[in-house]
Amino acid sequence: MFWSHHALIDLLHTIYYECRAKNLPKNDPKVFSSCSANNGQKTITATSVVNMLEDGSSNNVDVTPQTKPWFEGVPNKYYDLADATQLGAFSYNYEMSGFLRDMITQCDNVVASKLEDAVIVDTPHVLRATYRKDNADERLWEKAIMDLGRASNLTVSQSETEMVKVQTLMYDNCFPGTIQDFDPEFKKLMGMENMKSHDVMLLESIKDGSNPILLPVDKWTAINMNTYHCRGDVPVTN
Hints:
- The protein is mainly α and 238 residues long.
- It folds into 2 domains: 1-106, no CATH class; 133-228, no CATH class.
- The chain contains 8 helices and 5 strands; from the N terminus they run αββαβαββααααα.
- It comes from Achlya hypogyna (Oomycete).
- This is Tyrosinase copper-binding domain-containing protein.
């Protein structure tokens, strides 16, 4: 599960990079956006060296004798790791099909598809097709929400933001479980004791009215009902 999750994120980043960041300068935030680490004591930029320490020491793995051979030749700056196809001998590509193929070839012009699949390959990106109904239904839902955003005079980026808000309410009101904050132990480990998870903050801002959904409520709840048989704006009652 761990590796499947990270491979999926890497695949989506590959599509994002191809569509939105390829050939941009390394200091462009679409390529790498700077961030802070160690509770704000350190700023990470595109040219920062990735800090991966040997277990139980303060030595970086690409200089420690025991681990150095495994990292020999691997780019060690954040910007250099942005494009998986430009890692020298360690470069790799994905074999994509259906909707994933459409995403990387059509980018912002992509429309809902019934087909998708992906595997890692050593050759340039390969494109083919498969089918899963539940994923196809989800993409039709996304297209309906994006179309509603367009009809509401929102930009693509704004429509995507509103779609996330609608999804957040659906997870809170329609599906089993709840949206939860990180546990205290994790917060302490990550140096974020005074922070909440993004999902919790988003949910709270929607509910308190400081960040309302900008789509017409009668329209997006109808789209939810059509796909998930739940409005999403109020909790499900049995």
